[in-house]
Amino acid sequence: MIKLGLTGSIGMGKSTTAAMFAKRGVPVYDADAAVHLAYAPGGIAVAPLERVFPGVMGEDGGIDRASLRTRVTGNDEAMKKLESIVHPIVGAMQREFMEKAMADGADIVVLDIPLLFENGGDRRMDAIVVVTAPEAVQRERVLARGQMTEEQFEAILARQTPDSEKRRRADFVINTGLGLDYAQAQVDAVIAALRARAVTTQDAEGTGN
Fold first, then answer.
1. Average of per-residue pLDDT across 35-62
2. CATH code where residue 199 lies
3. Residue 202 — pLDDT band, cuts 50, 70, 90?
4. Edge-first strand listing for the sheet containing 172-175
5. Which pTM value belongs to this model?
6. What is the domain count for the chain?
7. Domain boundary among 49, 76, 105
8. Do 201 and 184 fall into the same domain?
């Protein structure tokens, strides 16, 4: 089973690209969705986060993500505490996903992880695809959501590996700034290339080369 790491900086269209893989029948693990689930009312991360960051639990019993973001943005110590709580939880959810995909006989899985390079997750992947877009498009997308200020956006960018470096280290690059049809064609090309690579590897192993 090929593990394809999918990553990209904020606002690059990573979630849209992940959905394209899922539409083609490739199982997708969404690290952001895992965090949302852990932060939801009754979620496994709610109690420990409230203990460390009192007041971040909202009236609904889940984590108020805007409040938590305000507490940790620009504060390296607070960010480390947050990651020490969330990363083990998300890691366990990822292992459960992998076990199910393998049991279902999947030949490729996509691991959609925003901080793949930053956290060293790239070393555990068989291949990496980076989603990119022009800088102006990225900024416009993020700020149009109305969920964060420009200062918060810049703070997030400062923590992420630069887009140019991600593209340099990728096996595949998908540009979402050229339209959905173009991105979909790139997704199909990535899947075809990975399956062709798997067949070549199997043939080589079968001949003892």
1. 95
2. 3.40.50.300
3. low
4. 28-30, 108-112, 2-7, 127-132, 172-175
5. 0.82
6. 2
7. 105
8. yes
